Amino acid sequence: MTWVTHESSTVYSNPWIEVREDRITGPGGDGIYGVVTMRHAAVFVVAIDEEERVCLVTLERYTTGRSIEVPAGGSDGEDAIVAARRELLEETGFVADEWVHLGTMNALNGIADAPEHVFLARGLARADDPAHAQAEEGIAAVSWVPLAEVLSMIADGRITDGETVAAITYAGIRLGRFG
């Protein structure tokens, strides 16, 4: 059965998101469905240094508290690679020479239209003039962790951010570490 939208109305909107309520007919019959639409795509950066360590940031999320993640952020409407370069610099003070787009994924696709681009960054160097905004981003720490340890952190629950788990998976597949 396909979903049929009978009516749609925006119930909340700001510069970053729109929330709408749709009157629908779906597999379970008639009902309402709430949908969050992100105005701009997000980017996630798996930065790996010459020692095969992954860059992780520890930050305080308003919604969930302390979180260990890969550098990430919104695209603000510009090309995803431009946003990825900016987010890596802002959150870590690093720049990269090599960039590979690993894939596009969707966050919380049961309730949201939120495209996300995942990049692998290599050839890393500290920026000459690191105009990063760690305090503004709520970043408490930047760390470099071997990939095997990152996988252990996912397995034991120290890393719980779903997008970070997916981004690490994309990178691990690309690098031939899984399978």
Task: Map the helices and strands.
Blueprint: E1 4-13, E2 17-26, E3 29-38, E4 42-47, E5 53-61, E6 65-69, E7 72-74, H1 80-92, E8 94-106, E9 112-113, E10 115-126, H2 134-137, E11 139-146, H3 147-155, H4 162-174
Parallel strand pairs: 3-9, 4-10
Antiparallel strand pairs: 1-2, 2-3, 4-7, 5-6, 5-11, 8-10
GO biological process, one term: ribose phosphate metabolic process
Protein name: NUDIX hydrolase
Cofactor: Mg(2+)
Give a description of the structure.
The protein has 179 residues and is of the alpha+beta class. It folds into 2 domains: 4-38; 42-174, Alpha-Beta Complex (Nucleoside Triphosphate Pyrophosphohydrolase). It contains 4 helices and 11 strands, in the order E-E-E-E-E-E-E-H-E-E-E-H-E-H-H. The strands form 3 sheets. It has a 4-stranded mixed beta sheet, with no helix packed on it. A 4-stranded mixed beta sheet has the order 7-4-10-8, with helices on both faces. The protein has a 3-stranded antiparallel beta sheet with strand order 6-5-11. Strand 1 (4-13) and strand 2 (17-26) form a beta hairpin. The longest helix is centred in the middle third of the chain and has 13 residues, at 80-92. It is globular.
- Uncertain spans: none
Give the SSE string.
EEEEEEEHEEEHEHH
Strand residue content:
over 45%
Which fold name is given in CATH as the topology of the largest domain?
Nucleoside Triphosphate Pyrophosphohydrolase
Specify the biggest β-sheet. 4 strands, mixed
**What is the strand arrangement across the widest sheet?**
1-2-3-9
Q: Kindly report the name of the CATH homologous superfamily of the largest domain.
A: Nucleoside Triphosphate Pyrophosphohydrolase
Helix and strand composition category: alpha+beta
How many helices does DSSP assign? Answer: 4
Shape designation: globular
Number of strands: 11
CATH architecture of the largest domain: Alpha-Beta Complex
Total of domains: 2
CATH level 1 class label of the largest domain: Alpha Beta
Arithmetic mean pLDDT:
93
Helix content estimate: 10-25%
Radius of gyration: 18 Å
Task: Determine the N-to-C terminus distance.
Answer: 36 Å
